[in-house]
User: What shape does this take?
Amino acid sequence: MSSIGFIGLGIMGGPMAGHLVAAGHQVTGYNRSPAAVEKLVAAGGSGAASVAEAVRDADIVITMLPQDEQVVEVFTEVLEHAKPGALYIDFSTVTPKTSEWTAAEGAKRGLRVLDAPVSGGEAGAVNAVLSIMVGGSEADFEAAKPVFFAVGKTYELVGPNGAGQVVKAANQLIVGGTYALIAEAIVLMESLGADAAKGLDVLAGGLAGSRILELKRKSMLERDFRPGFRIDLHHKDMGILLETARHAEASIPMGALTAQLIAAARAMGHGSLDHSALLLVAETLSGRETPNEAAS
Ligand code: NAD
Assistant: This one.
């Protein structure tokens, strides 16, 4: 069992830290807002008042933070205060460039570094069934397996540092694009009087079926856009995707279009809604009123 310093106890990090406590690890948590730390303490972990305090004695340091900016800020402190030889796992979704930077700077101080962004949403974190895309060395991946086992169901080493983030960007491309297509399909069916609920049931059982159609078709038809995964965060991830594709000199027109639809959702004031609210954009583009006021 390891001594773990866990920074960023939000929607995802909170339940993940709880699972590590339940698995028998000694977890010391730090979060910018203290209420989240109190929750971890109530679950059997320890609380810290700073990054330095959380990581000082840790064999493993974990971050689960919103964006590049916070990861750079917190990792700079980790570099200063973590024990040489400690394993640093960043579960946040950030640019591959930032993950490569943490690996290079960590190596200078004797830290072992993995980028390990996740997919599966809040439910995946709560039920410890996340999919984890890992970038780094084989040896560090092996060392991190007890952590991945405690919070996830599927985890793969997909390449060197930064590769986990590249795979996560590909994940967000497919997820965003799929929502955009389902949204257009709903507008089309409803516009012409087809039974959209039965229509989506049939589609879910055929080649057009997907996990998103399976899990979200009911809430989309009801215009229930409570998050889940917020448009604001998906907008951040599409920025990572476009930057990564530009760097790779890869042309991703579908990704660019999806990024614009997500940007439109934000511009329409839907940033805090679930990403399935792309349906509101599809409706607006076709001049339709959303049938249910619950969406507003
Ligand atoms: P969140 O905003 O709920 O949690 C982030 C936490 O970090 C907050 O509790 C915040 O107080 C804390 N924090 C921010 N800056 C800090 C700092 N400098 N020091 C200490 N604590 C700080 O976000 P989340 O939904 O848990 O997402 C975290 C990451 O996981 C993001 O990169 C997101 O894209 C990714 N992700 C989220 C989901 C999801 O469904 N929510 C799914 C997959 C991946």
